Amino acid sequence: MSSTNKNKLIALAFFLVFPLFLAEAVHSFETGGIQVISPASSETLKVLKLLFAIIAGITFCIPWVLYKRIKSYQPKHDLLIAKFNVGNPGLMLGYSFLFSPVIYGIVLFFVGISISEFYYYVGVSFIGALAWGIFNFRRM
Length: 140
What we know:
Elements: H1 3-32, H2 42-65, H3 67-71, H4 89-111, H5 115-139
Helix pairs in contact: 1-4, 1-5, 2-4, 2-5, 4-5
């Protein structure tokens, strides 16, 4: 296995494990009864859930819609993302878009959604990272 493929595998493992780690952290918040933000009203929560679901769907689709641009992405400066040697810095950029549903889920959890609804966001991020990793192992 070349170092580039090894680094792609490490990036894939990180973006598969990190959402699960955040899910466990949020679960410990829930079982501990810790509330960071006061719960929103049910009407506000419905609007926020719809808004974040739409935004999560859009950010989930961005890596595939912009695949040719991401594939040709080369940073102008010596950024940290270029030091990972994944063969293409665009690979890491795609993972960052697919990680965003977890962040949206965390925000919604602290506003008032249930833990089971939060796990949907974690699942979307996990499946997206897995699909992006498999897609890139086959394409790049």
